[in-house]
Every structure is written in structure tokens, then in C-alpha cells.
Automatic annotation (TrEMBL):
The keyword Transcription regulation applies. Residues 34-53 bind DNA. Keywords: DNA-binding, Transcription, Transcription regulation. It comes from Arthrobacter hankyongi. This is TetR/AcrR family transcriptional regulator. It comes from the Bacteria. PANTHER family: HTH-TYPE TRANSCRIPTIONAL REGULATOR BETI, HTH-TYPE TRANSCRIPTIONAL REGULATOR RUTR. PROSITE patterns: HTH_TETR_1 (PS01081), HTH_TETR_2 (PS50977). Residues 11-71 form the HTH tetR-type domain. The lineage of its organism: Bacteria, Bacillati, Actinomycetota, Actinomycetes, Micrococcales.
Length: 218
């Protein structure tokens, strides 16, 4: 169990530990990370670490939860001013790709969670999908999205964003088959983003009203 800070200074210290842990886990991986490395980077005493976290597993899980909270907030805020569901999709995906470019640890740490902490991995994706499902249900009720299973659609849409982001944000060079050493791309290329959005919009757009032009009187 993680200890909640009781003072503003404690809150800052805990945040420094989480920031350092995010960096260490992303750069060297869970198994090569250590509490000593985390506290050294955070410039916090080793004993202080245990005031807030029981151990390496506990802070790893908290890093996953923190990243999840921040990416969901970024997407929600971006989509808030959208007039329609399709506009919200566009704004939300842009925010997701921007967050990923600024925090490449999101991909690296979530992929480690598959083996290190399956519960944290499931929490991360489930929280994102649950919000997505509710948004799709509301859009269906408003006639902005075609009839479809919102749970299946939410998982499918998240998969689209996940892999597009990995290929064009986390990996660097177009046509590269693996992670590039030069670092993450700052933006998904506009032509890639537009192609992805056309795919999504065609999948979600409500069915057109029946064409009445071919009917005859009498």
C-alpha cells in the first residue's frame, strides 16, 4: 500500500519519486531498475522512499496509474469542446498522440506491465475503455454514431490509436521496422492522421437516410 503524504512538502516528495520512477522504468526497464536508482534520481533519501511506497512493485503500479490518469485527462479535456462525437474522436486522438510524444514512457511502461503487473495493465486499458463506452452510448442515443456494440467498438478504436501511435510517434523513421535510436517523433504525420480519421469516421458515421429521389407518385 502506498502512503499518502500529509504535508505539501510530502506531496512534492512523492511526486518527485514518481517522476524519477517513470524515467528509470522507461529507460532501464523494471528488472534493472532499483529503489536506489529511483531515490538517487529524485534526490531523496532511501529511507524516505518507504514513507510513501512499500517497494518497487508498489511504485511501478502507481506510475502506471499516474500515467493512465494523465492521459485520460488530456483526452477528455481536448474532446470537451467538440460539438459532435466524430469531432470528439478527432480531438481526443490528437491529444493522445501529443501526450505520447511528450511521454514515451507511457508505451514502454505499459508494455512492461504485461509481465510485471498484469493487474495494472488491465486497469490501464479498462479505465480508458469504460469512458469510451459511455461516450459511444451517448453518441448513439443522439444519432451521431451508427448502431454497433459500444464495447467492441471502444476496444477496436483504442487498438487503432495504440498501434498508430506506436508506429508514428514512438518509432522515428518512416518505413523503419523497429524502434529508432534517434528518439520519438513529435507528431503523427498529418496524412497518417487524416487517413486514420477517415477510417474511424466511416466506421462510426450513422447510416444515411434512405434516398427518396427514386420513388414515384401513385
Amino acid at each position: 500500500m502506498s502512503g499518502a503524504p500529509r504535508t505539501a512538502r510530502g506531496t512534492r516528495t512523492r511526486a518527485k519519486l514518481l517522476e524519477a520512477a517513470e524515467s528509470i522504468f522507461a529507460s532501464v526497464g523494471y528488472h534493472d531498475a532499483s529503489i536506489v536508482k529511483i531515490t538517487e534520481q529524485a534526490q531523496v533519501g532511501l529511507g524516505t522512499f518507504y514513507l510513501y511506497f512499500e517497494g518497487k512493485q508498489a511504485i511501478f503500479d502507481e506510475v502506471v496509474e499516474d500515467l493512465n490518469r494523465r492521459v485520460r485527462h488530456a483526452m477528455t479535456e481536448a474532446a470537451r469542446s467538440a460539438g459532435t462525437r466524430l469531432e470528439a474522436e478527432r480531438a481526443g486522438f490528437r491529444a493522445f498522440f501529443r501526450f505520447t510524444a511528450e511521454h514515451p514512457a507511457l508505451y514502454r511502461i505499459i508494455r512492461q506491465a504485461e509481465f510485471v503487473s498484469p493487474g495494472a495493465l488491465r486497469m490501464h486499458y479498462t479505465r480508458i475503455v469504460n469512458g469510451y463506452i459511455e461516450g459511444l452510448k451517448s453518441a448513439q442515443a443522439a444519432g451521431e454514431v451508427r448502431p454497433l456494440d459500444p464495447t467492441v467498438a471502444a476496444w477496436a478504436l483504442m487498438g487503432v490509436g495504440e498501434l498508430i501511435g506506436m508506429r508514428w510517434v514512438l518509432w522515428d523513421e518512416p518505413g523503419d521496422a523497429g524502434p529508432a535510436a534517434a528518439g520519438p517523433r513529435r507528431e503523427v504525420p498529418e496524412e497518417v492522421f487524416e487517413e486514420m480519421m477517415q477510417f474511424i469516421e466511416r466506421a462510426l458515421a450513422p447510416d444515411a437516410a434512405p434516398d427518396q429521389e427514386g420513388t414515384t407518385d401513385g
